[in-house]
Design brief:
This protein has a single domain, classed as 4-Layer Sandwich (Deoxyribonuclease I, Chain A), CATH 3.60.10.10. Helix content is about 25%, strand content about 25%. It has helices spanning about 10-25, 45-50, 120-140, 175-190, 230-235, 245, and strands at about 1-5, 30-35, 55, 65-70, 75-80, 95-100, 105-110, 150-155, 190-195, 225-230, 235-240, 255-260. The strands form two sheets. The protein has a six-stranded mixed β-sheet with strand order 3-4-2-1-12-11. The protein is globular. It starts with a strand and ends with a strand.
């Protein structure tokens, strides 16, 4: 089975490009982030025409997650238990969606950005990540053999090797010690950074800002991940980041991350 995750930075602006990419690479399940559209405006028919069912969790012009699958789409769930809200009285943001696809519990996740270390959004980000990792820990504790993939844009670069210039990020979000500690909680819970063994060459990133010619200069960050349960990680035999998709005209500022999993024995 081929799994992928992609922050598409507006599904309506890039739906034809995304569906063409899906079919060209024979992806079975795609976790999609930052769809930036309400459910009723999502280009579902483009996916259905190529044999993909789609689960949606939209929020208008920002956030939004989805899962496209051609191997089944069952037990769809929006959000997660105890998901924090950005401010008291507000509903949860459309940042987490899960479904069972071909026997794997796939999550599409778009973690809060954090904005700046002195912004309330930063504390919200840390709380959001902490609660999600706690939910994951409970789920793995209940069923250590579970097939789980937490896929998406975590908005954290776990190590200095995951950014083009660590000094540039001093005092900025994405690389602070609390953010990295929050990311480590997922690994401590038993999940594996399953793409890392296949994409660990220096200068391997998943995101390049549109400004200052970052992509051409390869001034990027690795902030998109597929964190897999031990049972699923054992099945992962290859992974790659598709830089060509980022280089395409009108592309998202993220590249898709792709993993290949062997069949269950």
């Amino acid at each position: 089975m081929r799994l992928a995750t992609w922050n598409v930075n507006s599904i309506r602006a890039r739906s034809e490009q995304i569906v063409a990419w899906l079919t060209r690479h024979q992806v079975d399940v795609l976790a999609i982030q930052e769809t930036k559209c309400s459910d009723d405006r999502f280009p579902v028919m483009s996916f259905l025409a190529e044999g993909y069912d789609v689960a949606l969790y939209g929020e208008g012009g920002y956030n939004g997650v989805a899962i496209a699958s051609r191997v089944g789409l069952e037990d769809v769930h929006r959000g997660f238990d105890g998901q924090p809200v950005r401010a008291a009285g507000e509903p949860p943001e459309a940042r987490a969606l899960s479904a069972t696809c071909g026997g794997i519990r796939v999550w599409s996740l778009y973690a809060p950005n954090g904005r700046s270390v002195d912004d309330p959004h930063y504390a919200y980000k840390l709380e959001w990540l902490a609660q999600l990792s706690a939910v994951t820990r409970l789920e793995l504790g209940h069923d250590p053999a579970a097939q789980i993939a937490l896929m998406g844009d975590f908005n954290v670069a776990p190590t200095d090797a995951d950014v083009w210039d660590p000094s540039y990020f001093e005092g900025r979000t994405h690389t602070t010690e609390p953010e990295r500690a929050a990311f480590s909680e997922f690994l401590d819970a038993g999940l594996a950074d399953s793409a890392a063994p296949f994409t660990s060459e220096p200068g391997t990133y998943t995101f390049w800002d549109y400004t200052a010619g970052r992509f051409v200069k390869n001034e990027g960050m690795r902030i998109d991940f597929a964190l897999c349960s031990p049972a699923l990680d054992d099945r992962i035999h290859d992974a790659f980041i598709d830089r060509d998709a980022r280089a395409a005209t009108g592309a998202s500022d993220h590249a898709p991350l792709v993993l290949d999993a062997s069949d269950l024995s």
